[in-house]
Amino acid sequence: MAVQSTPRKPQDSLRSAVLRLLRTFNRQSKRARLIATVALTLAVISSGWGGHQLLKRRSEDKAQGRRLLRRNSGLRGKDGSRTIFVPYRNSTAKVVIYPTKPTSFDAHRRLFLNPPRAAGLSDGQPALQVPPPNTKPGLNIAFLHQFLSLLSIMIPHWNSKESGLLLSQGVFLLLRTYLSLVVTRLDGEIVRDLVAGNGRGFLWGLVKWCGIGGFASYTNAAIKFLQSKVSIAFRTRLTRYIHDLYLNDNLNYYKVLNLDGGIGQGIDQYICNDLTLFTNSAASLYSSIGKPLVDLCVFNYQLFRSLGPLGCTGLLANYIITATALRRLSPPFGKLKAVENRREGDFRLLHSKLITNAEEVAFYGGADIEKVFLDASFKDLTTWMEGIYRLKIRYNMLEDFVVKYSWSAFGYLITSLPVFLPEWSGLGNTPEPAFPSSSSPSLNPQHTRMQSFITNKRLMLSLADAGSRMMYSLKDLSELAGHTSRVYSLI
Length: 491
What we know:
Mean pLDDT: 75
Radius of gyration: 32 Å
Oligomer: single chain
Largest sheet: 3 strands, antiparallel
Structural class: mainly alpha
Strand content: under 5%
Number of helices: 14
Low-confidence stretches: 426-442
Distance between the termini: 96 Å
Strand order of the largest sheet: 1-2-3
């Protein structure tokens, strides 16, 4: 007679762990058990006391924040820092503003007042105006030196808040590239199941498409949010640095208004407008160049697996030729943008002077003369902006035709290599799909070819989009060079 087995009750993992811990504790000596008991008691007491002190300190900070918020004041620390409380939701938030150290100004002096000769901003001798008037804003060594100098202020060290934001943004950018690859593969599978009449596979593909679409939408929103946070962090760093540099006991703000011939009277234009444009352009530079560059590498590798070395070589040659041609035919947007910002500052300066001297203008009847000056300045500004727009129209026509239509036609030609000329593509008679799938076995060769074509087409479109963003980023870099030159001249 067979022995009947009694089912065992599943043991709780937490209970078994506690029992093992108690058995281990009982096997120890009496002295060791006493020491462990005292240590555990002290740990519980100290953690409870520390938690109580933390809650007490937080309640005191909230009470102090409400009191100082009503008085619109803050606290000054011994190290020169200032603690202010700002409204946040239904309570207050504590913000500590640390002043720029004098050693930081001394370290940055060689970058802004005595730049190296290789940067093209000086001839090795101390200059009265840096950068000199003959330095043209553009994509050159001078722009690289200016941008890196400002970057040392915006990101002071590797463990700063800005570094964490850039790292988080980089993770989301890589995740967006991976999702693009998944969507590309899924697009080919949906079309394959549709052509093959596989209703169950088609509906399951739509479900996966909607799920991935929601996650991709969140990723795109997170990228834009982090870009805005990076822009605000960069602007906060530079604004506080400039305030500490000019609003001090050395009367630098008075000197730059009355004695500095390089900046003149438009310092408010530099701080309020040019600084904002520079930080926005610098924050978008990470995503407008970094992500397309990663996309180019990843998509080129996937197309190399699908189209072979000949197709990949043709794509790279097409990118190099078009990028070189567009770079040579591109107008100097950096110089044009710098002049536009300067004329915007002159027009704003005339209004500031009119507001400051409104009483004298009204007393002496100088409204007509001031109107002539304002109209002339505004006409110069609008004429210059219209000239820039005319240049942009011609360049955008050429850029859109090359990037969108000529690249698409060339992409269709490349994707047809595995179909019409399989021996030229280097893959034999059976083209290897970029994403091999085993979800639908024993498919018709025509269906597999359709899947490969749709997948390669989607890869080509994504690759063309990444290449077009790289081309557009050259224009953004030129405008960034103009903003960089203005902010560098201010500091």
